[in-house]
Automatic annotation (TrEMBL):
Family of the protein in this entry: Belongs to the RNA polymerase-binding protein RbpA family.
Assembly, per entry: Forms a complex with the RNAP catalytic core and with free principal sigma factors.
Protein name: RNA polymerase-binding protein RbpA
One of the Pfam families matching this protein, by short name: RbpA
Top-rank taxon, per record: Bacteria
Organism (species): Nocardioides imazamoxiresistens
Length: 124
């Protein structure tokens, strides 16, 4: 046991274990090709879900699997506008009533910028 003692091991990736009796996980080579015609292979576990897209190590572009695996189409929701969110809270008739009330207040000078207000009659 004295010969297996670790003395002064330095930091880093040096391992003092041997590979006897170790059974490695089953692996497979998965091929990819990018739009620039760069072809490369990635080693993956047999049990792994194989991604349809991988980043090309040479140019950084998205490379597609040569095994014919197609990327999933992402369903994008349409962008919600302010009008859509407003209609979730109020009906169009309610909005028309509110608009009419606010326009009357604005025309009456009760709300809005100061330069639009009617001069108030001072009581003497």
């Amino acid at each position: 046991m004295a010969e297996r003692t670790l003395r002064g091991a330095r930091l880093g990736g040096q391992s003092f274990e041997d590979e006897r009796g170790i059974e490695f996980a089953a692996r497979q080579q998965v091929g990819y090709r990018c739009p620039q015609a760069h072809e490369f292979e990635i080693t993956m576990s047999v049990e792994a879900d194989i991604p349809a897209v991988w980043e090309c190590p040479r140019c950084g572009a998205e490379a597609l699997s040569t095994a014919g695996i197609q990327p999933e189409e992402k369903v994008e929701k349409p962008a919600r506008t302010h009008w859509d969110m407003l209609l979730e809270r109020r009906s169009e008739t309610e909005l028309e009533e509110i608009l009419t009330e606010r326009l009357e207040l604005l025309r009456g000078g009760e709300i809005g910028p100061a330069h639009l207000h009617k001069p108030s009659r001072s009581k003497r």
